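Hi Y.,

Following your request, here is the sequence exactly as I used it, all 38 residues.
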Amino acid sequence: MATVRTLFFFLFHLLILHLQLPFSIHPPPPPPFILAFP
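Below is the corresponding structure, written out as tokens. Let me know if you'd prefer a different format.
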């Protein structure tokens, strides 16, 4: 369960970065790996 949830958050974060990258010049926030782990 934990692995699947971590992978989901990782893929979701990558998607958000791909959507915001062309619009935002600021550096992206750190990935929520700590929040993903139980």
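The two ends are 10 Å apart (CA to CA).

Thanks again,
Q.
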